[in-house]
Design a protein that fits this description.
Structural class: alpha/beta
Mean pLDDT: 77
Radius of gyration: 23 Å
Largest sheet: 8 strands, mixed
Number of strands: 19
Strand content: 15-25%
Shape: globular
Low-confidence stretches: 44-91, 131-145, 184-201, 301-332, 513-518
Order of helices and strands: EHEHHHHEEEEEEHEHEEHEEEEEHEHEEH
Number of helices: 11
Length: 521
């Protein structure tokens, strides 16, 4: 076997978590690291850069337009979010301390706020190039906050009249709105190790294979020894001398485990896969936010774009674009995230609003419950990559989620009817016909959007992985991304997923004690 196919660590997936993990492992020059990534450099568009179609579209396609604008994959039946960052998954919001405390209380020992706070701080120091002894770790870096535009400011003024204040960052447990910090592309799909905004020199000990899809994990008994993958040139096998780490997302990870013989014995038998290690929790506990988007057309905004509501506002927006730093990636749109109460008498924020202007004119406003209680499953239906997954998303399967969804829909429409926004925009989809609870739930189920899947390889008692992220029932196999999160955080999943990868790197990065390696041959 070629020496390029024998490494110390194989990371399956080069997204947020995989990039952070590769960076940490690569800091030790003795570690020889391979990242397997199914996508290619032409598929790494930032989710928030997906602009809506400029031409008029049919009513049935309007929700798809909203989905594309939000960077979401629209599926009319399953609403499945994949392993990459989706929708506000590109918005770097850490979540609250209580989110992580819940995980530890449920049996994920050591996975608490203090540990994540340390990872967030370390990542932000790296991204900012901080080398001194001090960094303000009380809040995320605002380096990549989107620049404001006139339509967005109109939205913020409307929220202010509803008692929702603008803040610089989204921490805390009160209603608020912000231009949140957003991560620039943080993946390895370009073939270089650039996991943070400013990038890093290429490391000789980290290699990235693009257009390389993991088909199954190779085992010697219950010990992971490598990965079999599919490339445009055919099948290939890679050997891991130390460990295999899965960072393929809350959908990709359980499917890969099950195709490899790790999972519930009944599921594997039905799919025709030989059992390697029993782990009945694999593919369960699928948690996602299920919401829906309103599409709005401009009323007082010129058709060619969202910026120039007034000549002065247009000039200001032009200056902001002209003065933007050249080393910070630009966006066609500005996103605004608000957290608020669906019911004015609620004890705390229980929903999110994601506002995104459409470059062609207009905007989309998507709403999501913050902490849904519905749980689904995802499993294989057969042993091959081509076999479709058996997905039971479980959207709106609890009374709590159904009640919250109806209330969030009504609250969103109430805000859209407020001034000054109502004088500038008109709702075009879903339209006034969707109003009563039954119609709202049908709309969200059939035409909604799904955000941020987690939990299918969860930490905790009886979970898929132990406190060191090791897959129970196996050896030298770990999972390190959003799929290990027992529940959703009240922030986005990208920041937390990247932190999981960083923490996994802390566990693994100095484990290789063999002699210093001289480079790829």
């Amino acid at each position: 076997m070629s020496s390029k196919k024998i490494v110390d660590y194989i990371i399956v997936g080069g997204g947020a978590a995989g990039s952070a993990l590769a960076h940490r492992l690569g800091e030790n020059p003795q570690n020889r690291v391979l990242v397997i990534e199914a996508a290619g450099p032409d598929e790494r568009r930032h989710p928030m850069l997906s602009g809506a179609a400029q031409a008029p579209i049919a009513p049935k396609a309007r929700n798809r337009q909203a989905s594309r604008t939000l960077g979401m994959s629209h599926r009319s039946t399953d609403g499945l979010a994949g392993g990459r960052a989706e929708a506000s998954g590109t918005i770097r919001s850490r979540g609250g301390e209580a989110d992580y405390a819940t995980w530890e209380a449920a049996g994920a020992t050591g996975w608490n706020w203090a540990r994540f706070q340390g990872a967030f701080t370390a990542m932000e120091r790296q991204a900012a190039g901080v080398t001194g002894p001090h960094v303000d770790d009380s809040r995320p870096s605002a380096e990549a906050v989107s620049p404001p535009d006139a339509t967005s400011e109109l939205w913020i003024r409307t929220l202010a009249r509803q008692g929702i204040d603008t803040v610089e960052e989204l921490g805390g447990e009160r209603t608020r709105v912000a231009y949140p910090p957003q991560s620039v592309p943080t993946d390895l799909r370009t073939g270089t190790v650039r996991p943070f905004p400013h990038g890093y020199p290429r490391r000789r000990n980290v290699r990235v294979r693009l257009h390389c899809t993991a088909r199954r994990i190779l085992f010697d008994g219950t010990t992971a020894i490598g990965v079999e993958a599919v490339t445009p040139r055919g099948a290939v096998r890679f050997t891991a001398r130390r460990e295999v780490i899965l960072c393929a997302g809350a959908v990709g990870n359980p499917l890969l485990l099950e195709r490899s013989g790790v999972g519930d014995s009944e599921v594997l038998t039905t799919a025709g896969v030989h059992l390697v290690a029993a782990n009945p929790a694999v593919g369960g506990n699928l948690r996602q936010r299920r919401g829906a988007a309103f599409t709005l057309r401009p009323h007082g905004v010129p058709e060619h774009g969202p910026d120039p509501v007034t000549p002065a506002a247009g000039l200001g927006a032009w200056l902001r674009r002209a003065l933007r730093r050249p080393d910070v990636p630009t966006r066609e749109t500005t996103s605004i995230l608000a957290v608020l109460n669906s019911d004015r008498e609620a004890s705390g924020p229980d929903m999110e609003l994601l506002f995104t202007p459409i470059p062609a004119g207009g905007a989309t406003v998507a709403f999501f419950p913050r902490s849904p209680t519905s749980v689904g499953t995802v499993h294989i239906s057969g042993p091959a990559l081509k076999d479709p997954p058996r997905l039971v998303p479980g959207h709106l399967s609890t009374d709590q989620d159904r009640e919250l969804t109806v209330a969030a829909f009504a609250r969103t429409r109430e805000i859209l009817a407020g001034e000054p926004f109502a004088s500038a925009m008109t709702e075009t989809f879903p339209g006034a016909d969707v109003a009563d609870p039954a119609d709202v739930l049908r709309y969200v189920r059939e035409d909604g959007v799904t955000e941020q899947a987690v939990g299918t390889c969860a930490l905790g008692l009886g979970g898929v992985v132990d406190d060191e992220l090791r897959v129970r029932g196996t050896h030298r196999l770990r999972v390190a991304d959003a799929s290990v999160m027992p529940t959703l955080t009240t922030g986005d999943t990208e920041a937390a997923s990247m932190a999981v990868g960083w923490i996994a790197g802390d566990v693994l990065r100095n484990a290789n004690t063999r002699s210093r390696w001289s480079g790829w041959t």
